[in-house]
Specification:
It is a single chain. The chain is mainly alpha-helical and 71 residues long. The protein contains four helices and no strands. α3 crosses α4. The two termini are 30 Å apart.
Length: 71
């Protein structure tokens, strides 16, 4: 998962890391990054959405590879 977080745009990845790995609240992250809370919430939302897309793509590639392998 760390590899996928590193693929995110910088502020999204940093916000995801601070929130989920370090346990900071949105308010605390906003102070650390000198951003508004609404901006941090948007970074987190976009970051989660992008991670979901990355995971979905990886899953479809894996299952497509597996189907070809066993046919």
């Amino acid at each position: 998962l760390k590899y996928l977080i590193d693929r995110l745009p910088h502020m999204q990845g940093l916000s995801i890391y601070l929130h989920y790995y370090e346990g900071y609240s949105i308010r605390e992250i906003a102070k650390i990054l000198n951003k508004r809370e609404s901006a941090v919430a948007a970074y987190l939302s976009r970051g989660r959405r992008n991670l979901k897309e990355y995971l979905t793509q990886a899953e479809s590639l894996t299952s497509a590879y597996g189907r070809r392998m066993y046919q």
